[in-house]
Design goal:
Elements: H1 2-13, H2 35-42, E1 45-46, H3 52-64, E2 72-76, E3 80-87, E4 90-98, E5 102-110, E6 118-120, E7 124-127, H4 132-148
Antiparallel strand pairs: 1-5, 2-3, 3-4, 4-5, 6-7
Amino acid sequence: MKRFGIIALLVCTGLAMAEPAPLVVDKKVRKSVRAKHIEAVHLEIPTGTTDLAKIRYAIVQGMMLTKGRVWTYEGDDGGSIRARFDYRGHTIAVRIEYNEELVQIKFHGGSEAYECKIIIDDGICYRNHDNYYKYTPNLRASIAQQLEAL
């Protein structure tokens, strides 16, 4: 009975493991950001393999080989990797969630100008600085490219 209580507590507090999921853009919530910008960051990426070690490797490679500046590895939660991007003294932090079918980038935090103004669905950022929608898609594209190469 104690285990059930702990699991229920984790689920209720949002500490349970999140999973990538198909993106559905809520047009009523998105305000001034176009759906294509939200999709460019948060649209799920099919893995093409069920080997979690290979998927994780492709994500880390994608972080290192991103066009422009690389993303810094911040940690691994078993099913997600935290990454950080620093630009002119500001930081964008993301959580790259993965399973045997999908990889998805979710907003994890940001400093000052990069704080998400509207966030829903456990990490889908609907309103952020223009640079968030400029640099994060490069990470997504790089990860997709690495997954295709597996």
